[in-house]
From TrEMBL:
Source organism per UniProt: Pedobacter punctiformis
GO molecular function, one term: ATP binding
Record keywords: ATP-binding, Nucleotide-binding, Transport
Annotated ABC transporter domain residues: 2-227
Superkingdom, taxonomy of origin: Bacteria
Name of this chain's protein: ABC transporter ATP-binding protein
Coiled-coil spans in chain: none
Length: 279
């Protein structure tokens, strides 16, 4: 559904942000896009949406070239940006104006999500808190039923209960012909939500793997004594001992710790990436 080949991109008169990047993303999955600050995550998402264009290489999204921005493409792709800027109108008015751009918009789903987020559709967008605005925009994004739904830092501005609501909502919305990409620095917010991990660093995709493959090849443990772990790849200390990432030599079942895995990949690339046949 999304095919990127040998993409290179740089903003005018600046250092290259993405270089010779290739990636294929398939429908029916929720992808988590992770990377350090300045790695180019937003730039990659904006390329997919057709807001900025490759210097070298090509992008194809649901059979179309994003830079052409055809009506059929724009109806099928929705980007929820990190910062939301809402007009001084009621939610009901905002909905009336903007839902027309998305032929598959599901009004019942939108109202259901507003109820889940405990927000009244009669509220004025200029009068609610930033967190509430963010939840309205999340509800709208989901209700578009866009084939490509991209969320850039969706949990920024949400308190802990709202993040729990977000995870609950996202867990049940994916359709078989839909692709969802969530980019975030708040890695723990993606635990138990995504089924594929993309890690972007050094101007390219370092890792593109399913959660099942990661937990098949690696084991995540908490131990009091490091002697119990043979040659761990990565270790973090804490009040309750140590959390470690190690090769899953005994075929153990463990739960993926997204933040721990992300830190491990960035810190120990030469040890961990070869496990997944990456150079």
């Amino acid at each position: 559904m999304i095919r990127i080949q040998n993409l290179t991109f740089a903003y005018q008169n600046r250092e290259t942000v993405l270089e010779n990047l290739s990636l294929e993303i398939k429908p029916g999955h929720i992808y988590g896009l992770l990377g350090p600050n300045g790695a180019g995550k937003s730039s990659l998402l904006y390329q997919i949406c057709g807001l900025i264009f490759p210097k070298i290489g090509s992008i194809e999204v649901i059979g179309e070239i994003p830079s052409k921005r055809t009506p059929s493409f724009l109806q099928s792709v929705y980007l929820l940006p990190e910062e939301v800027d809402t007009p001084n109108i009621s939610i009901k008015s905002y909905l009336k104006i903007n839902k027309l751009f998305y032929p598959s918009f599901d009004l019942d789903l939108f109202n259901q999500l507003l109820a889940e987020f405990e927000i009244s559709e009669t509220a004025n967008l200029s009068e609610v808190s930033y967190g509430q605005k963010k939840k309205v925009m999340i509800a709208f994004a989901i209700a578009t039923q866009a084939k490509i739904l991209i969320m850039d830092e969706p949990t920024n501005g949400l308190d802990i209960p709202s993040k729990r609501q977000f995870r609950k909502v996202m867990a049940g919305i994916l359709q078989d012909d839909q692709t969802i990409i969530i980019s975030t620095h708040q890695v723990r917010d993606l635990d138990q939500l995504i089924d594929y991990v993309l890690i972007l660093d050094d101007k390219k995709i370092l890792l593109h793997e399913s959660i099942d493959t990661i937990t098949e090849k690696l084991v995540f443990k908490q131990v009091m004594n490091l002697d119990l772990i043979s040659k761990p790849f990565y270790v973090e200390g804490g009040l309750k001992g140590y959390v470690v990432v190690a090769a899953n030599e005994e075929q153990e079942h463990s739960k993926l710790d997204m933040e721990l895995f992300f830190n491990a990949v960035l810190s120990e690339k030469n040890q961990i990436l070869p496990i997944f046949n990456h150079q």
